[in-house]
Design a protein that fits this description.
The chain is mainly alpha-helical and about 80 residues long. The chain is built from four helices and two strands; from the N terminus they run αββααα.
């Protein structure tokens, strides 16, 4: 059931719908990222949920640190326009 939750969240974040004409999948992450601060914060919280699930599955501390760093970097870069 954990794997199913992770797969559903991944699909939602990365390929929720297809842009007409381009036939390219786009996820909610790209759309909510257009909203300053709030969008990036929501996306970061969803990413941190994936890190939490990884911890529950017994991933190593190094992998969890890398995942957390990636989420933090994505949030920080997304917040630059506000700064």
């Amino acid at each position: 059931s954990v794997r199913r939750r992770i797969e559903v969240l991944e699909k939602l974040l990365e390929r929720a719908f297809v842009i007409p004409g381009l036939n390219r999948p786009v996820g909610i992450d790209a759309v909510i990222g257009l909203v300053p601060v709030a969008g990036d914060t929501i996306a970061a919280l969803m990413g941190l949920y994936l890190v939490w699930e990884g911890r529950n599955l017994g991933m190593s501390k190094w992998q969890l640190a890398r995942m957390t760093g990636t989420v933090g970097l994505d949030w920080a870069v997304g917040s630059i326009p506000v700064a």
